[in-house]
Amino acid sequence: MKPSTDKSPQEPAGASVRKTPWRRWLTAGGMVVAIFVVAGLIGSVVRAHKETQLAPPEGATGASALAVPQWGHAAVTLTVYEDMRDPATLAFENTYGATLRQLVASGVANVYYRETTGVDKAQGGSGSLQAGNALGCALDAKKFADYRAVLLNNQPTESDDAFGSDSHLITLAKKVKELDTDVFRACVDNGDHKVWVQDSNKAFTASNFGPGPVLTMLVDQTNTNEAQAQAIISSTLTLTPKQLQDRVLAAAVQATPTSADLPSVAVTNGATPTPAAAPTTPAPSLSASAKPAKAKKKPTASASPSLH
C-alpha cells in the first residue's frame, strides 16, 4: 500500500483541548450578555409599569389629585402654578405669598399649588421635576409648606440644575424638622411622585395660560372644573397685592349665600317662621390684623402654612 500523499496540515494533538476553554468562555460570555440584556428589558418594563401606577401624594386634591391644598372651605379657589427652579416663582412668592396666606387664614379663599417643569424644558436638566417630586414626598409627611419655603430659600440660578440631585434635595430636607426620614429618602430616590408632577405639567401646558408662574381663580366651591378657572396673574396679567386681595374678596362676597339664598324649611306645626329664625352666613372679610404684609426678600418656612 502506497503512503498517503495528503499533505494537508493536521492539528497537533491537544489543540482541541487548548481551544476548548476559550470556546467555553466565549459561550459562557455570550450567555451572560444575553442574561443581562433580558434582565435589562424586564427591568425597563417593570420600571415603566411602576411609573404609570404611582399614586399622587397623600392629601393631594383637585382634578386628578394634581394640586396641593392650603385651604379651608371657601367659595373661591386660587391655584398657583409654580416651578421650584424658576426665579419668577420666587419673585411671585415674595410679592403675593403673604397675601395668599392671609386670604386662606381669613377663610376668604382656598389656595392650591401645582408643580410644573418649564425650566427643565427651557434650560435642560431635571431639577424642576426632581424638586416637584420631593415636594410630593414632603406632602406625604405633611411638611409641604415648610419644605417648599426651604427650596425657594435655596433656589439655585436658573441655569444651575442643583435640584436635579436627589442627594441635594434630601440634604435640604434636614432644614425641616422631622422630614429627613427613611420614608422621605426612599420616596425621593425612587421618584414616587414624578408622574404626578409630569401630569400636572401636561395639564398646565394644555390650559394655554402661558409660561408660569400663573394664578387662577375659580368661584363656587362645588365647581371642580379647572377648565373654567380664570387666570388673574400671569406673564401678561399683573395685580398689586392689594388689588389681588380686593378682587378675591369681591368674588367671595358675591359667592357667599345669604338668608335669601337658603332653602326654605317646611312648617309642620302651624308656626310662622320669622326672619330672625332664618340662619345667615356672614360675608367673608379680612380682619385688620390680616392686611397684606410687606413681602420679604426670601420666603421663610415659618411664614408658610402647614398641612398638619
From TrEMBL:
Instruction: Give the UniProt keywords, A-Z.
Output: Membrane, Transmembrane, Transmembrane helix
Q: Where is this region: Disordered?
A: 263-308
Name all Thioredoxin-like fold domain ranges: 74-235
TM segment ranges? 25-46
Question: InterPro entries annotated for this entry?
Answer: Thioredoxin-like_fold (IPR012336), Thioredoxin-like_sf (IPR036249)
Q: Which domain of life is it from?
A: Bacteria
Biased composition, Low complexity: where in the chain?
271-292
Pfam families given in the database record = Thioredoxin_4 (PF13462)
Q: Which stretch is the leader sequence?
A: none
Protein's recorded name? Thioredoxin
Look up and give the organism this protein is from.
Answer: Streptacidiphilus jiangxiensis
